[in-house]
Design a protein that fits this description.
The protein is built from four helices and no strands. It has about 170 residues and is mainly α. It has one domain (about 10-160).
Amino acid sequence: MTPQRFSLASRLLHWTMAPLLVAMLLIGTGMVATVSSWRLVLLGVHKPLGLLLFVLAVLRLLLRLAGTTPPLPATVPAPMRVAAHASHWLLYGCMLAMPLVGWAMLSAGGLPLPLHLPPLLAPDVGHYALLRSLHTVLGEAFYLLVLGHVCAGLLHALLLRDGVFEAIALRIKR
C-alpha cells in the first residue's frame, strides 16, 4: 500500500530543517556582505549550524531511501513530475554538498573547524579559492532551489489543493 503522507519523522525533519536552512542562507549572505564585527558572530553560528544541518540532511536522506514516498496525484503533468523529482534530489545534493565543501574550504584555508573536526585537506591557497567559489555557487543555486520549492509548495497548498502539500504538512490528518 502506498502512503498518502510522508512519515512523521520525515515531516518533522522537513519542518525543523526548513527555517534552519533559510537562516543558514541568510547568515551566509550576511557574512560575505559585511566587514563589521558581526561577520565573526555570523561565522561562529554558520559553522556549527552547517554541521548540524549536514547531520540532519543525512538522517533525512536515509529516511527517504528506507521508506516510501507518497505518489504525486495523477493530475500533475509529466513535466512538473520531472521538475519535482529533479528539484528534490538537487535540494538533497545541496544540503549534503554545501557543508562538505565548506569543511574542505576551511581545511584548505587552514582555518578553525567547528567541534575540532579533522581537516579534509592540507592548507592550500589555490584549493581554498576554488572551494570558496564553489561554496558560493552552491549557495546561490540553493537559494534558487529553495525559492522554487517554496513557490511549488504554495502552488499546491493554495491554488491546486491536490494533496501534495498535505503529504508533507505537520498537521494531523482528521
